[in-house]
## 1
Amino acid sequence: MATIINLLVGGPTANYPADLTAIPGDWVGADRGALRLVKRGIQPVMVVGDFDSIDEAELQTVKQALAGTIIVKPDQDHTDTQLAVKSIFEQLNPTAVHIYGATGGRLDHLLANLWLVLDPVFRQWAPQIKLIDKQNSVQFFLPGEYEIQKEADKKYLAFVPMMPMHLTLSDEKYQLKAAHNDYPISWASNEFSGDTGHFSFDAGVLAVIQSKDDQVSD
C-alpha cells in the first residue's frame, strides 16, 4: 500500500495550496514549517532542523504538539530540507515524499530544493520526491521510458533535463526525438495531447513540471 509523507519546509505561505489540512497523509515539518503545521492544527510525526528561524517559546509549542521524533540538525553541511528528506526515507520508509513550501521566496533555497535530487545521496529517491505548490507540481525521473497522467487542474507541461541526456517526447503537443542537451534546459510551455503523455531519456535526471497560470488581477 502506498504511503505518502508530506513535508512542509519554510517557503512563503502564499505559495501553499489552498488548504494543507485537506491533504491526506502524515506530516513532517522542517524548521519553521513545523510551527506552521502546528498553527494549522496539524500534528507532525517528525520535525527536523536547527530551529534558528523560531524562538524558544515557538519551539516549545512545536514540541508539545509533536506526535513523534524531533531531529536537531547537527551542522550546516545540509539544509533543513535535505536532512528532513533523508530522515523521512531512512526512518519512515515512505512510498513517496510530497514537499510543500519549497518554492517562492529566496532563490538560493529554491535552487537547493530543485537540485537536491542531483546529490548522489538523494538521487536514489528522486522518483519518489515531488514538489507541490499552488501552481506547480514537479516530479523527478531517472533514465527510462515513462507514462505520466495529466493533472486535471494543470494546462502546461515542461521537461527540464537537469544533466546531459537525449530526450524523446513521443506524443505531447510539441515532440522531440532524442534531443541532446549539454547543460540544463527547460523545454517549457508544452502540453498534453490527451490525458497521458509518454517520454524517454537515456542518462541523468529529468524534472517534469505540470503547471497553470496564477489567477491574479492586474
Note: The chain has five helices and 14 strands.
## 2
Amino acid sequence: MYVKRSRSYWSRKRIPYLKPTSVFENVENVFNPKRGLMMDIKICYDAFRRRKKKFGGIYFFTEPVFMPIDPDLIKSILSTDFSHFLGHGFTFNEKYDPLAAHLFNLEGEKWRKMRTKLTPTFTSGKMKYMFKTLLDCGIPMIGYVNDLCEKREPVDIKEILACYTTDIIGSCAFGLECNSFKDPNAEFRRNGREALTIRFSDLLMRFLTFWAPSLPKYLPIKYLRSDIEKFFINAVKNILDYRTTKIMLNVMTSFSYLSNYRKRLE
C-alpha cells in the first residue's frame, strides 16, 4: 500500500510522468548496475522530449523526482528562482561523516556559507593562474601515452584521465606533486581510486538511502572507508600546518631583515 501510494504522487499532482518499470521505479537495479544513474536519467529525459513535455516526474524507488526539460525552466531554477531550490536530495551524518559535508551535499544556510568561502577560489583570474598547472600536468601524460604507442600497448583512457585529474587536483588544491603516471600506486592516487570504487556495501547504502532518505542523519553511515577518510583529513591538516609554519618563518625572516636594515641605517 505504501509503494502504491508513493507511485501515485505525480498522477495526484496532475504532472506528466513515466510509469515505473520495476520495483526500483525508473532506475535500474542498484545491485546489478549496467548503465549507471546518469544514463537512466538521460533515458527519462529523452522520453519526455519525445512527448514534447516541458517538465515531468519520475521515481527513484518510492521518492518522487521532478525533472525540468524546457531550457527556460531550467534557467529559472538555476538563476532567478534558485533561492527556492537549495536542496540537493542527499542526506548524511555530518558529525560521523565530515567529508560528506561538501558543496554538493549541503543545503540551506550551511550551503550558502560554504559557497561564499569557495567562490573566491574560482574567479576568472585564479582560473587563468591554474591553467599553467593544467599544462604542466599534461606533460607527463603525453610522455606516458607516447611510451604506450611506441611499445604497441593498449591505452586505458579511463585510467589515463584519472591519473591526469589526480595530478591536477593534487597540484591545484593541495600543492602536491602526485606523479600518478610515474607511480600508479602512489598514495594519493591509490586512495583516490579506492574512494571512487563502488562496493556492495555502497550499493546497499544507496538502496537504503533512496527508500528512507532521512536514514543517514540518524545512523553512523559513512560514504568513505575510515582509512580513506583519515588519509584525506590528515593530508589537509599536514598541508595547513606546513603552510602556517612557512608563513611564520617568512614573517620572522622579514622582521629580522628589517631590524638589521634599521641598525645599519642608525
Note: The two ends are 90 Å apart (CA to CA).
## 3
Amino acid sequence: MKSMKAAIIYEAGGPERLILREREIPTPEDGQVLVRVRAFGLNRSELMTRKGFSPDVVFPRILGIECVGEVVCDPSGQWSPGQRVAACMGGMGRDFDGSYAEYTVLPKAITCPFTSDLPWHVLGAIPEMFQTAYGSLYLALGIRAGESLLVRGATSSVGLLAIQIAKQAGLTVIATSRNPEKDAFLRDRNADYVLVDDGNLQTKIKGIGAADKVLELIGTNTLKDSLACARPGGLVCMTGMLSETWSVKDFAPMDFIPSTVGLTVYDSGQFRLDSGALQLFISDVAADTIQLPVGRVFGLEGIVEAHRLMDSNSAGGKIVITND
C-alpha cells in the first residue's frame, strides 16, 4: 500500500502538537470517495480542537474540516478519477480524519463536484469561507437590497467576504475592527462605514442608524451589544466565535434580547455545499467579480507555522495549505 504524508495531532496543545507522519493511503468503502487533497483552508474550529476545546474529538486525529482536490477512487463509479471536488464539515477532522494530509477518504454526501481552472491555492480558500458567508447572509439573515448590514469581526476572512457579497446584493455595509488602523483597509474593500470596536458599538452606531441585519463573528461576549445595534424588527445571526467564547453565562432571554429583535445562528455543519451556488461563486472569483481574502499560503510541511500565524490573528485573510 502506498503511503502519504499527514499532519497528525496526538494530544491537545500548541501548534507544535501537529506532527508530520507517513501513513498508508486509506481505502474508500461504499458511500465514500478517496480524494487527493490539493489544498485546504485553516479554520478557527481546528484551532479550538487543537487546544483541546472539542471534547468529542478523540486523538490521534488528522484535523481539517474542508478541502478541494481530485477524485482518486469512487467505488460507486459515478465520478471518474480526476474529477474536481470540494468538501467541508460533515464530521471532517472531528468524527473522522480530515484534510491535513495528501489524501483523505470522505463521505460522498459532503463532497461537491465543480469545474475550474483556478489555481489550487485559490480554490482551497473557498469551501468553508463561501459556505459560511453565503449561508449566514442568505439562509440565516435573508439579506435584501436596500438593507443595512453590520459585520462585526469584519477583518476576518469570512467578514471580508461577507462585505463583498452584501455589497453585490445592494446593501449598505457597516464594518468593525478593534484596530483603528484598519479603517482604510475595510473601506478599500467596499465597506460604507467603519466603526472601531471597543465592545460598545450600540453608542457608536447611533450616528449611522441601527442596522437591519447584523452578522456576529466575534462570539457570545459581544452578542448582547450586537443585538442592541439592530433596529426593532431587525435580525442578528451569530456565526463566528473569534473570541473562542462558546456560551452566555446566566442567559436571561428577556433581558438579553431587545424586544422584536430576532436572533438566529448559522452552522455550516448542518448544510451541504450547494453545487450550483458554489459553481457560480467560483465563476465570480474567476471573473474577478469577487476578490478572495487570501492571507498566506503554506505547504503541508508548514502546518505548524501556519497554525502559529492563525493563533496570532495577523494573517490578513484566509490561510491556505497546498499539496500542489
Note: The longest strand covers residues 32-41.
## 4
Amino acid sequence: MIASDLDGTLLRRDGTLSSRTLRALRSAESAGAEIVLVTARPPRFVDRLAEAAGLTGTAVCSNGALVYDIGTRTVVSSRVLAVTVAQRVATALAAVLPEVGFALETGNQILYEPAYRLRLSEDIDAELPVGSLADLWLTDVPVTKLLAWSDRIDADTLLAAARQGVGLAGSEVQFTHSGGHGLLEISAFGVTKAGTLAELCAGRGIDATEVIAFGDMPNDLTVLDWAGTGYAMGNAHPAVLAAVPSHTVSNEEDGVAHVLERLFGPPTAP
C-alpha cells in the first residue's frame, strides 16, 4: 500500500497533481500497490481532486475521522466528535487563548462563529455562518473536527498551548495541525491518520511493513511512524524532518514520484 498525504506532499503548491506524479501512482497500481489518500481534508475536497485527476479508490479523510470511497462518494466509516465534547474543549481553550475563533467541520460543511474569520476559496460553497459561538453548539449534524483559528498565533504555538493548557478536557480529544496558518485541528480522542489506516490495512490483510507512507506536517507523524517505510517531504515541517529518517525531495519537485519510480520502475503513460 502507498499511503500519501495531499497538501504539501502529493499535490504541488497550487493544489494540482503533476502528470509525473500521476504516472508514478498508476505505475505503482499496475504493479499491485493500492493507493490510499490520507489527508486532513474533507471528502468534498477529495471529490474535486478525483474529478480533476481521475483518481479512484479509498481516502482516509479529516485526519482519520472518515474512511471514504472515492468512486461511490460514500463514507464507509466514521469516528465523530461529540458536540458536547467540542464545546467543553472550546471553552477550555478560549480560557487560555481568548482571541481564538471556532468552527465545526462536518465533512460536507464548515459551520463557523463570528470570531472564526479564516476563509478558503475552495470552501466558499461549504461555509455556513452562525450568529454566535453559542449557536455553534446547537447543530445536530455529525462533527468530524473542531477547528480553532487565530490570525495572530501560529499553528505550532496553538498546538503547544492546547496540549499544555486545556487540562482534563484535552483527554477527550486529539490535537494536531496540518500547517494551516493559525489553525488547530481537534478530533475525537484516539482519532489519528495512523489509527484509521491501520484498521483499513487490517481489513485488507496488509501489514504495516507493507505500507509506504508520505507526509509533511505534524498530523502525518503518526502514519510516518506506523508505516513500514515513511518518507518526509523535503519541504516538511522541521519536526517531521527531525523525526523521520527517510526523506525525499519537495512536493514541487515531485518527491513522491521520485520514490515510486525508484521502487516500481519507469512510469507508464497516463
Note: The two ends are 20 Å apart (CA to CA).
